[in-house]
Input
Amino acid sequence: MIECTAVALTAADGYELAAKRYVNPQVTQRARLLIAGATGVPQGFYRRFAEFAAEQGFDVLTLDYRGIGDSAPESLVGFNMDYRDWGRYDLAAAVAAHHSESMPLVVVGHSYGGHAIGLLPNHQLISAVYTFATGAGWHGWMPLLERWKAWFMWNVLGPVLTRKYQYLPGRRLGLGEDMPLAVFVQWRRWCSYPNYFFGDRELPDLAQQFAEVKLPFVAANATDDWWALPRSRNAFMTYYRNAPMIGLDIEPKQIGLKQIGHMGYFRPQAQSLWQPALDWLLQHAK
Output
């Protein structure tokens, strides 16, 4: 029986965050696992994966980044933040809280969750990282039709809606949760660069910061994930230049799936992806 308990986290800048911990007290605990979610995706989306991992003896923590889900204020209008805060403050708080001297800590990242590792001030507390769907975000890495959809989102629909609401109405757009305005503004700008935020001249030290990460990685991307195809992954992951990196290309049909896309990795039908990921993390936990 999986026990799920609410956990309150406090980021270094004082922001209060909502998290959940999943444990199976009837099995021997083997490692601690932190799930670093995607942009605008609430922690509840990862519940089934968290429960699956808990059954395998992982002590699992999920969280909602600031401005998202249970960590959102009553209104996003006027809510100020930096998109990097989700990594350097929020995920960092989860790493600090979930780390234990007696048990290794590993991370499963989804999309932004793979970006966030390089933003952490305390990545040294992690033993290994397995990411799904992390890529550079640039429309040029996408198939032609998806390029046009992304262009329309960044240049027409998104600006119109954010001017109207003063935040990004993600729920209306099928992008997960509503998101702070600053997230949309920075996300839009960074997705205009082939190498994502490494192309931003306002962040000249970012490449060196990522080079300091030396954790073993697996970066798994589906060949039908139009937002994060393997070539998009490669464009981003190359900046973890001192991290032992395995790039894994997933063909949906080879694992009995019609499609995976950008979100399907954590849906119940994709459970065949979960056990290999957890096994690899245990092999590299120390």
